[in-house]
């Protein structure tokens, strides 16, 4: 699973997804479909899911989170037909769902195209270091400084 440490444009996408999630939560009141229980509850649950996923992606973006945001956007687009609501509720769901799909697609594009130097290491620095760097340091062969009662010569003598 690919992961990136976020650059400013990734933080913008995370913030944009937060705005889209909040928009979906507020849509029942703004577009006037609060009385349609199925549409309103779907907007609240999907919006809360998007808010949680977008909050996770603010510091570091993981590929799985982006796929989940895309899946939530796809569900938001399909929900009017799957759950049978229409008019303002359908337009709000489809519009915000398309925006989420575009956002997730651009994020996946960035994950795919980033150079390896900008991607987070999937392994620790110890695992990715060349074998010569991983070797344990050798102890000096001159052990006279380690014996009790021996003095180390000063550098000025």
UniProtKB/TrEMBL annotation:
Keywords: Membrane, Transmembrane, Transmembrane helix. The chain crosses the membrane at residues 12-32, 38-59, 66-83, 89-109. Residues 121-157 are annotated as: Disordered. Residues 128-138 have a biased composition (Low complexity). InterPro entries: SPW. This is SPW repeat-containing protein. It holds the Pfam family SPW. Residues 15-104 form the SPW repeat-containing integral membrane domain.
